[in-house]
């Protein structure tokens, strides 16, 4: 590999690049890690360290790194036709084929795709189009969205407002009006003496209380991640989503599943909604749609919502320069082709996830771990001050960051949110990589404790 002047690059980075979700002054002092290569389950940094990526980039590299076919699909499309826009009433075959493929893969009658560049924009899209859906049916007052505290739906004004991250709400004039939040389902912290299944119903009924408080004729939609990722992989009890779905149906509130993390096999099912047995009216997608090889997002609408938007909605005053970008849709199609033809989602569900769950539970025995939660290929270890107690550290996040940095030193990428160590590996992992995860994570927990 060609020589890289790491110090110089770090200096230039510190001088000229503002990093998202970082304290940039602290990062400049520490020096960013420069990555140079990815292959399968691993990435390499400029100093030659080989790292097992147990986070799939940022919940997205489902196919693993270095698949030439995706690069070739991009290159073919770039050379043939690099760009088009619907503005001029045109389209291209890969974008049509991707819309068809998504209609086929997503549950029930989610048959209509609107393309964006990212998950955040997909959530902006649903906020505007769902409000429009009600407005053109003479219900403009039915415009309130309900999300959850600590939910994450992206970084744009609408995405961050739909999300319930207090730190984000503090910056830049958020949230925008007519968005409300209920408490999230997190049995570990909030379940008290209830069984997880009992708690799931109690947590879901918070939505009913909120709808009744606001008035059902004012509530447009409820949005949630099937499994809340960024805040710490909160896996709700199986009763939760079924009850949420019942409540949405009862009050004619649209159910929006933000599948940006859960979509494309993360839970072992193609979509998190299938894992929990629910049928949303609207779904947002990104990340795994291209395995992170190129930016792309989508909002999927069911026949009812899309029918109104198409036949009563008039001109949609909404869209991006790169909506349905042909290179991105060509890469997404190739990604989905490989996931399907190589049976990667099925193999993850039937072979890897059960073994991962076994070894994750073993990590749960460690004296620093209070809970080891997992659903398919996504999980978290909750680090606690005292084994056996469902209680957080007084100073939250300190131990998590220490464990994350120790894991990195040991050649393992795990994310920390507060003191939850988050797992979301590429779906192509083998049993050997699960064992490597176990060895490196156990060692890192030992060194952190
Ligand atoms: N929704 C969820 C559940 C996410 O986890 C994310 C990003 O992590 C987003 C939306 C935003 O997607 P993007 O970062 O592509 O804008």
TrEMBL record:
InterPro entries: Aminotrans_3, Aminotrans_3_PPA_site, PyrdxlP-dep_Trfase, PyrdxlP-dep_Trfase_major, PyrdxlP-dep_Trfase_small. Its cofactor is pyridoxal 5'-phosphate. The keyword Transferase applies. The keyword Transferase applies. Coiled coil: none annotated. GO terms for molecular function: transaminase activity. Keywords: Aminotransferase, Pyridoxal phosphate, Transferase. Pfam families: Aminotran_3 (PF00202). Belongs to the class-III pyridoxal-phosphate-dependent aminotransferase family. NCBIfam families: PRK07480.1. This is Aspartate aminotransferase family protein. It comes from Lysobacter brunescens.
